[in-house]
Amino acid sequence: MKSTEEIEKSLVTLSLIFYLVSLFLPAIYVFVPSFGKSISYDGWYALFVGSLSATMNVKQALIWLVNPIYLLALFSMKFRPKIALFFSLFVLITSLTFLGFENIQYTWSGRVMFINSLGFGYWFWSISFVLLLVAAFMNLTGDKNQYIT
Membrane-spanning residues where (predicted)? Predict the structure, then answer.
């Protein structure tokens, strides 16, 4: 039987794998009125261009901030389990609010792209946050000395 710590490490590793894979999958399918057609954006594009669009819209900024906060949660797992749990919960809840978005602003003048659907990249991105939250919860509640007598 695996110890709690081994399961935790496996969940954190799996979370990181899901996050990295999400960067190479289509994250979102949008209709761009100025193009007159639908296009998809991969996760890596959403990550890097999202940092620029975060200055245009507060809701979009909050969604984009999930990425660095996820990394903070990863790095705080070992030494700050309460902070890791808080960050993990914040990241998951915030990422799920994107389900309610109907459009994305992509220029400072207010032009928008209409969201057609979310791709596998979005779902892998969200699953990585669920896995990290479970690992953070186990980290906080688990008995690290369960096999020491």
Answer: 12-32, 44-71, 83-101, 121-140
Prediction pTM value: 0.85
Q: Output phi, psi for 146, to 5 deg.
A: -65, -25
Nearest 10 degrees: Cα torsion 27, 15, 70, 47 = -20
Tens of pLDDT, residue by residue over 70-102, are: 999 999 988 898 999 999 999 999 999 989 888
User: How are beta strands 26-32 and 37-42 bridged, if at all?
Assistant: antiparallel
Query: Looking at 1-149, which runs of residues are DSSP E strands?
Result: 26-32, 37-42, 103-105, 112-118
The pLDDT, as a whole number, for residue 52 is 73
Pairing of strands 103-105, 112-118: antiparallel
